[in-house]
Write a structure and sequence with these properties.
With 354 residues, the chain is of the alpha+beta class. It has one domain (27-103, 170-351): DD-peptidase/beta-lactamase superfamily (Beta-lactamase, 3-Layer(aba) Sandwich). The chain contains eleven helices and 14 strands. The chain has helices at residues 6-20, 31-47, 74-77, 87-96, 151-157, 160-164, 172-181, 208-213, 224-235, 262-277, 336-351, and strands spanning 54-60, 65-70, 105-108, 111-112, 123-124, 136-139, 147-150, 201-202, 220-221, 239-241, 254-257, 292-299, 307-315, 322-328. The strands form five sheets. A five-stranded antiparallel beta sheet has the order 2-1-14-13-12, sandwiched between helices. A three-stranded mixed beta sheet has the order 4-6-5, with no helix packed on it. Strands 3-7 form a two-stranded antiparallel ribbon. It is globular and about 65 Å long. It starts with 5 loop residues before the first helix and ends with a helix. Bound molecules: zinc ion. Residues 108, 140, 142, 145-146, 159-161 line the site of zinc ion. Zinc ion is lined by residues 108, 140, 142, 145-146, 159-161.
Length: 354
């Protein structure tokens, strides 16, 4: 038996560690990382219930390339309402147009009266009411209200009223152009994934209700791959690229650029960070990773109570390298879509991914 002195062994071990475990530059993923992510997504998809309702994408942000995808072609051919995910492009869009500043705050009482309060009895408005009257109100996700919220707090707790209040700052055609140019609804980013990618759509408001609820994603329909392209654009400083297919080894090709102001960037990053720490995505917290996330629940077309659920997460929070987009039909953002991401993160931790 050969006994090596610890003092001689230690430098050798350190050197071996350096050689065996090359540390990639911040924000980049090694081939091994991608393999672990793909395996984690496959395990999640095999074990978690509701596979037939789920579309799950993992993206290498730096390369703008899919690492793993479940749910087949529907990822780029099936469009649904993004619900509160739309608040992220909304903040980017309005801040970049100088229509939103860092001091924006809203005092949420739980009730938003689009036509003002009346002296009579108040009445709740359902989403099928096309022209709200004085004295009628929308309720926020927290019935008692969120109190005074900053922009990033409003994003993290998904205070709908802080965003409905921005409805008159939003020009529908400029909003539609932004959604297309940023990759959210444009098909330019999706052409490499397969034939006939669906463009997302934005309906121009047909009634006062559509106008009031537009900041909440009303009238908007997006594909999971469009959402992936959009967040890849955001984490790439506004550079919009194609999404290269899974296993292609290709890098996404630049198709445009959307200016991203420091205010928009920092508000969104802070909002997504807080969502994990104490907001709507806190169910993702503490899996051992620093994350950014946002949930969303969008109405099923033509319905007022049934929803499709979304959850988006990026890791690491300081310099995102991997993006997860999780969509589950007939669910809600903080439920099955979030659970799918949490399961992938648990699998990654078990596999030694850092
Ligand atoms: Zn609120």
């Amino acid at each position: 038996m050969v006994v090596t002195q610890p003092s001689r062994l230690l430098p050798a071990l350190l050197l071996a560690g350096l050689i065996l475990a090359p540390s990639p530059a911040r924000g980049t993923l090694s081939l091994r990382d991608e393999t672990l992510i793909k395996q984690a997504v496959q395990t999640m998809d095999r074990d978690e219930p509701g596979r037939d309702k789920r579309i799950f994408l993992a993206v290498n942000i730096r390369q703008s390339r899919l690492i793993a995808a479940t749910g087949g072609r529907a990822a780029w051919t099936e469009a649904a309402s993004p619900g509160s995910l739309a608040k992220i492009p909304l903040v980017w869009h309005l801040a970049s147009r100088g229509r939103l500043d860092s001091g924006y705050a809203w005092r949420c009482t739980g009730r938003f009266f689009p036509r003002g309060e009346s002296s009579g009895a108040d009445e709740l408005i359902h989403e099928d009411v096309e022209d709200p009257a004085r004295g009628q109100y929308y309720k926020c996700s927290r019935l008692k209200g969120h109190g005074l919220v900053s922009l990033s707090e409003a994003l993290s707790v998904s205070c709908n009223h802080a965003f409905i209040n921005l409805h008159d700052r939003l020009d529908p055609s400029a909003w539609r152009d932004f959604c297309s140019a940023s990759g959210l609804t444009g098909s330019a980013c999706l052409g490499e994934l397969g034939p006939d990618p669906a463009t997302g759509t934005l309906d121009i408001p047909a009634c006062p209700r559509d106008r009031f609820l537009m900041p909440l994603g009303f009238g908007l329909r997006v594909t999971p791959a469009g959402v992936a392209a959009f967040f890849t654009s955001f984490f790439s400083g506004g550079t919009v690229r194609t999404l290269a297919p899974e296993g292609s080894g290709q890098v996404g090709i630049r198709v445009g650029h959307v200016p991203l102001t420091p205010l928009a960037r920092s508000s969104i990053l802070q909002g997504m960070r807080r969502a994990v720490q104490s907001g709507t995505a806190k169910g993702l917290g503490n899996p051992g990773y620093s994350l950014l996330a946002k949930t969303g629940s969008g109405l099923v077309d033509g319905e007022i109570f049934r929803m499709h659920g979304w959850c988006v997460a990026a890791h690491p929070a300081e310099s995102p390298a991997v993006l997860f987009v999780s969509f589950v039909r007939e669910s809600y953002g903080g439920g099955p879509p979030l659970v799918a991401i949490r399961r992938v993160l648990q699998e990654l931790r078990t596999s030694g991914f850092r």
